[in-house]
Task: structure prediction
Amino acid sequence: MRSPEGHVTVTSSGTGHAIVDSVLAQKKVERRIVATVPSFLALGSIVANTELLAIVPRILASTLAAKEKLRILELPIELPPYSVKQHWHERFNTDPASIWLRNTLLSLFSQAT
Result:
């Protein structure tokens, strides 16, 4: 079954869209992807100014909806949990600014449920 709605997706490596597409394929549902973007930065504006949909983590959807006129809809299927990982060069292990940023990101993503 092919969804009639147009979707915008993010093509950067390591995003969860591979999980989304895998689960949809198992359920024999195919998204109609009409636009791809290289990062999540423009996603909110694109969705707010078109009739396109985007499947994103809830915490990102809430952040985008606070800045753009968006509606957050529940998915009709359940997606598996996913991990968010941080990577950095070892020379930044003890850098105070890098430690602060890593801890800030950890606290933000640890609160996501």
In short: Residues 55 and 73 are 9 Å apart (CA to CA). The mean pLDDT is 87.
